[in-house]
Design a protein that fits this description.
Elements lengths: L3 E4 L1 H7 L4 H16 L9 E4 L6 E6 L2 E8 L2 E9 L3 H8 L9 H7 L1
Parallel strand pairs: 1-5
Antiparallel strand pairs: 2-3, 3-4, 4-5
Amino acid sequence: MRFRLAFVATADQSFAPLPRGIQRQFDLAFDHLRQEPRLGGSELDVHQLYGYRNVWTLRIPPYRGIYVIEGREIVFVVFGHRATVYATLHSLVPPRRQAVTAVSVSRRK
């Protein structure tokens, strides 16, 4: 069963300034991610983020896409360069080993 992709406002805002080539790589990765967001298959570099229960990162060096898995839905929270994306995520949702929801991210903006 395929997962559905969704994007909160912070993800939309942070995706637009990425270089076009990186955007295309993310677009291609989204198709693989829909199959299994926890593994990503051999084509993708994904892993769960420490400090959260259901937050994962998709790596397309040197950029990252941070997403939450809610049931059968993959909700992207933020995109950015590896040097800054985690600080952005922590400002939206501090890591306290909690489960993150798209609603909780939307409220914190």
